[in-house]
Automatic annotation (TrEMBL):
Pfam families: F-box. Transmembrane segments: none annotated. It comes from the Eukaryota. Residues 1-24 are annotated as: Disordered. InterPro entries: F-box-like_dom_sf, F-box_dom. This is F-box domain-containing protein. Residues 26-64 form the F-box domain.
Length: 246
């Protein structure tokens, strides 16, 4: 037999190549691919437009939880601020295709007319965990607004706070394991209000829970110096929420 034939014989008698490693199921593989899309507003809607199979995964509730948990922190879409001390407007900061038109989050707080024909005056107190906190100074109520769903939760201000300058914050109250703040529009929330007693200069605070639908007890404490609550933005640091300044 020729040398070439010997080589062919030896090759054919050698050990067979190892079987290829099994690949994940098609849907599992697609799940992992979509999970790694950037957390921009346009990512999942564009993926959903590819085909029905992609849409089923990209809109699945379990997948969305994993998507938010994987990326941890959602992108900053823009900022809310008061214009001319009367209009609350949204200013987007992302470029197309993730640019959010300002009118998408126009709640129309100024000029809104209610049953009593009184003009509303909305004052922005803060924005956190995907929600906006506004106080209606005419109706003496706070509004928790959800820009994504456009829902507004109206909560009457406790009588003890009426007539005082107020500061406050809205916080997500979700306690389930693995919850990622940012897309909290379907989760329970807490509202914190704080003010200063004019006579005693003592700060007092109260917390509202959306789960119970009631305000908690009013808590007061002594302050070593003269303090103020006007114009002090709330910043959540760990479990602390500063709402007062000297």
């Amino acid at each position: 037999m020729s040398e070439q034939g010997d080589k062919m014989t030896r090759h054919s008698c050698g050990s067979s190549p190892a079987a290829p490693a099994s690949l994940p199921d098609d849907d599992d593989l697609l799940w992992e691919i979509l999970l790694r899309l950037p957390p921009k507003p346009s990512s999942l809607p564009r993926a959903s437009a590819v085909c029905k199979r992609w849409r089923c995964i990209a809109t699945d509730t379990k997948f969305l939880r994993c998507f938010y948990a994987h990326h941890r922190k959602p992108p900053l879409l823009g900022v809310f601020h008061c214009r001319n001390q009367e209009r609350i407007v949204f200013t987007p900061i992302l470029d197309a295709p993730d640019h959010i038109p300002p009118q998408r989050f126009n709640f129309g707080f100024h000029g809104r007319v209610g049953d009593n024909q009184h003009r509303s005056r909305g004052e922005l107190l803060g924005c956190r965990h995907g929600r906006l906190l506004v106080i209606d100074l005419v109706r003496t109520e706070v509004l928790v607004c959800e820009p994504i769903t456009r829902e507004q939760h109206h909560v009457s201000v406790p009588p003890e706070f009426r007539g005082y300058h107020l500061n406050g914050a809205v916080l997500c109250a979700a306690a389930e394991q693995g919850h990622v703040h940012g897309g909290c529009y379907s989760s329970p929330f807490n509202v914190v209000l704080v003010s200063i007693c004019r006579k005693s200069n003592l700060p007092f605070v109260c917390v509202y829970s959306s789960e119970s639908g009631i305000w908690g007890n009013i808590i007061s404490a002594e302050a070593p110096y003269a303090i103020n609550c006007d114009g002090c933005p709330s910043t959540l640091v760990g479990n602390s929420l500063p709402l007062l300044h000297y």
